[in-house]
Write a structure and sequence with these properties.
The two termini are 15 Å apart. With 230 residues, the protein is α+β, with helices and mostly antiparallel strands. The longest helix has 14 residues, at 165-178. The protein has helices spanning 57-61, 64-71, 165-178, 180-192; strands at 4-10, 18-25, 42-48, 53-56, 78-80, 85-90, 109-119, 128-140, 146-159, 201-206, 214-219, 224-229. The strands form three sheets. Strands 5, 6, 7, 8 and 9 form a five-stranded antiparallel β-sheet that branches. Strands 3-1-2-11 form a four-stranded antiparallel β-sheet, with no helix packed on it.
């Protein structure tokens, strides 16, 4: 067994924005150390066993099965303008936190799956650009089975003035809410592929969750990894 010591240095904030990662394998029963003379706003150190199951959200969301299903949700002049991405967001920073702060623990991480969009409008309004987000929760039940569900949704955009913002809001309210079933089906399909095993631990790592030896630069705002241990 070859465990790995992973170190993450965040230049913006903890579990957010660009970060540098370094992975150092070491023999079972041995030890490892990593040093970095460059400054950072926050750091995370994680000792990782070699029996992790890693779900890299960027890789999952790039699957044509997923992108085609998501594109089918975008109608009425709304189109996707880039890759579907994901990030881990602590519950107090989720947009609808104020509607029920006790719904999750403050330290709980939700997975934000977000879609960059462009909204075409009539000529008397400016077009709009923004993102549609679905907020996912994953957990292990008492038997160690993985579950996931859509906890909520949100959107944000710029543009649509001077007369079209109400119409845009109405259209997005209906379309994003109607899309929950599709997103839940995608979550169920992904979880079903892991249903044959029971797990003891679930945690998240920023970026891809790569275990490749050495250093790399990634961005926690555009990818997150869900990790399971038997």
């Amino acid at each position: 067994m070859i465990p790995i010591l992973s170190q993450y240095w965040f230049s913006d904030r903890y579990f957010g924005g660009p970060f540098e990662n370094y992975n150092q394998p070491y023999p079972s029963g041995g030890w490892a150390w990593i040093s970095n003379s460059r400054g950072s706003r926050a750091t995370l150190s994680w000792n990782r066993p070699d029996n992790e199951t890693i779900i890299d959200f960027a890789a999952v969301l790039a699957n044509p099965f997923v992108t085609s299903a998501v594109d089918g949700l975008l109608t009425g002049g709304v189109s996707r303008t880039g890759p579907i991405q994901a990030q881990g967001v602590f519950w107090p920073n989720v947009p609808y936190y104020g509607q029920g702060p006790g719904r999750h623990n403050a330290g709980d991480l939700l997975v934000r799956v977000y879609i960059p969009i462009h909204i075409s409008t009539p000529r008397y309004c400016t077009d709009a650009d923004g993102t549609v987000s679905y907020w996912l929760v994953f957990y292990l039940d008492g038997s160690g089975m993985l579950h996931g569900y859509v906890d909520g949704w949100s959107y944000e955009y710029d543009g649509g003035g001077p007369f079209c913002t109400d119409e845009i809001d109405d259209g997005l309210d209906q379309a994003v809410l109607a899309g929950i079933g599709t997103i839940q089906n995608l979550v169920d399909t992904a979880v079903a592929r892991l249903a044959g095993a029971a797990y003891s631990t679930l945690y998240y790592l920023p970026g891809s969750g790569s275990k490749a030896t050495g250093g790399r630069n990634e961005n926690a705002n555009t990818d997150v990894a869900l990790v399971l241990l038997p």
